[in-house]
Design goal:
It contains 25 helices and 7 strands. By secondary structure, it is mainly alpha-helical.
């Protein structure tokens, strides 16, 4: 590759330092402000129960086996939680670290393929992409999966293409380990994209007059990473690592459940989806959302894709990105955040376009996109002023400072982008976005959290109410959020899943208490003629969703 032998300069190290400083500032601050929500509770509860039981091969929620994701994404939380226990911070730290490392890898790839400025711009664009930042601050396996995918791409670009043994060993070893973060989906998308790149390069050669022997030579050259001696040795080592990680839990626990889980969640779901079914074109809509606030810039970059394509390095990142998109469009099961591994590739393409434009402003489309993005920051400043005036519950003194700052910085950076000071204009725009997002994920999140009647609040109220009660007199009826189990932190609470079981509990403990999601109670609560339960605490009342979690007791 173009940059393989260029030594690091002081400027390169400065760019990397700025990226790491910015990333640490925005990735690792305020991780514990927001209470756990959605699937985050699963990771928190499983990690805590692993630590408390000492069994790291049997993931449980409230003592019940829960094989949904491979073990490594849960294990990633454990080292941070051994001393102070599992918290919101320690649960989210693995995702935040993965997000930070992904930005650094994006810088490395951008620098290697093009130059350090392209790498820095690409890394900063990725860092400040809202949905990437959101998922980097969210406890799940998705950012870990993204990191391992792009680690494979990094070693592919760094020497895997040429068949270098150490790079190939890293590719297949990383892919095997990464398969136990979210599943083999990460390994599959990386290998698919590499095959797509290699086949497309051979296809481009077919336009030239080639003899069969020359075409055969070209095939082996492009697929050195897969069919060379070094590749086969590395592949065997990778398969061995995969089998060890797959069968180790089976050997330790005696349960084969993780094996069919791996098949069902990755192979079966890809070809015969049993949930999350969306049309293939839905990913176009998701890309628009997942590239914000740089959506217009990414779109404008495609107006000059033919220029980037002319460079071998540009062709590589375009084809890898195309491979990722095609892979997910071919999959039958589709969700918005599945597209996350595509975002670094799009940011490198956008970073290259911006880098070229800042040197020579040849693209009107890119200029319009940059100016429009700056102006949108001013609009957000106006929105903040409106929120401060109109909504007492979401009012914070920092909005008085941030609103005029965003308004003026948006106008100022847009004006500079029209002049010869376009580099300063881009820097001010990038800085404004960074400051805005830092505010959103810290102060803004804290203000919003105060207004939420969350599971954390509900759990605290339940614990106060049932304090002193025998644990056997408290049950959970059917499914409740894992985050509720996490915040209650009462050890294993008995679960009842049938109406008959609940009736038996009533007869045994007439003064017992039931924790439930009211939508699961049917006529036990909602039908006034046969109502058996009355609320003690209700988590939330919402006009659209109705009451949700509740602590209930039996009517006399």
């Amino acid at each position: 590759m173009k940059m393989s032998h260029i030594k690091w300069s002081k400027e390169d190290w400065l760019f990397l330092g700025l990226l790491v400083f910015s990333g640490c500032t925005i990735m690792f601050t305020g991780l514990s402000i927001r209470s756990l929500w959605g699937s985050e509770g699963r990771w928190a509860v499983i990690a805590r129960e692993m630590i408390e039981s000492g069994n790291y091969f049997m993931p449980t929620i409230n003592g019940m086996l829960y094989f949904d994701k491979p073990l490594l994404s849960y294990w990633a939380i454990v080292p941070f939680s051994l001393k102070g226990g599992v918290t919101e911070l320690t649960t989210r730290l693995p995702s935040a670290i993965a997000g930070m490392c992904s930005c650094i890898i994006t810088f490395f790839i951008g620098r290697r393929l093009f130059d350090a400025k392209t790498g820095f711009i690409s890394g900063m664009l990725l860092l400040t992409t809202v949905m990437f930042l959101f998922w980097s601050r969210h406890a799940s396996a998705d950012m870990l999966n993204l990191l391992f995918v792009w680690l494979m791409f990094w070693f592919f670009i760094a020497g895997g293409i040429e068949g270098r043994f150490l790079c190939l060993l890293a590719i297949y070893s990383i892919g095997s380990i990464g398969s136990f973060m979210k599943g083999p989906i990460g390994l599959s998308v990386a290998l698919f994209s590499m095959v797509f790149y290699s086949l497309f390069c051979i296809f481009l050669k077919l336009h030239q007059k080639f003899s069969f022997s020359e075409l055969r030579y070209e095939f082996f050259e492009k697929f050195k990473w897969l069919i060379s001696k070094s590749a086969l040795i590395s592949l065997c080592i990778g398969m061995l690592i995969f089998l060890i990680l797959l069968l180790l839990p089976v050997w330790v626990t005696g349960s084969w459940e993780p094996v069919p889980l791996m098949w069902r969640e990755n192979i079966e779901r890809f070809f015969k989806p049993f949930d999350h079914v969306e049309p293939a074109y839905a990913y176009i809509k998701h890309i628009v959302v997942f590239t914000a606030p740089w959506t217009l810039i990414v779109a404008a970059s495609f107006f000059r894709i033919h220029i980037i394509w002319k460079e071998k390095s540009g062709r590589l990142i375009i084809l890898i990105s195309m491979g990722i998109l095609i892979f997910f469009m071919l999959s039958g099961s589709r969700r918005s955040y599945y597209i996350l591994p595509l975002i670094p590739g799009l940011m490198i393409i956008a970073g290259k376009s911006i880098r070229d434009w800042l040197e020579h402003p040849f693209s009107k489309a890119l200029k319009i996109a940059l100016v429009s993005t700056s102006i949108s920051l001013s609009v957000l400043g106006i929105v903040l002023i409106y929120v401060y005036i109109k909504f007492d519950d979401f009012r914070h003194i920092s909005e008085v400072i941030l609103s005029p700052f965003m308004l003026l910085m948006g106008i100022f950076s847009a004006a500079l982008l029209f002049t010869q000071e376009r580099i300063k204009g881009f820097v001010f725009m990038l800085l404004s976005v960074l400051i805005l997002e830092l505010w959103v994920f810290n102060i803004g999140m804290a203000v919003t959290e105060k207004q939420r009647i969350s599971v954390r609040w509900f759990s605290q109220e339940v614990k106060k109410t049932i304090q002193g009660q025998e644990k056997k007199r408290v049950v959970i009826y059917r499914d409740v959020p894992s985050s509720l189990i996490f915040y209650l932190h009462m050890g294993i609470i008995k679960e009842i899943h049938t109406r008959e079981g609940l009736m038996d509990f009533i007869s045994q403990y007439p003064d017992g208490l039931v924790i439930a999601d009211l939508k699961n109670l049917e006529n036990l609560y909602y039908d006034r003629e046969s109502q058996l339960l009355e609320p003690v605490i209700i988590e939330k009342k919402d006009k659209k969703r109705g009451e949700i979690l509740a602590l209930l007791r039996f009517r006399e």
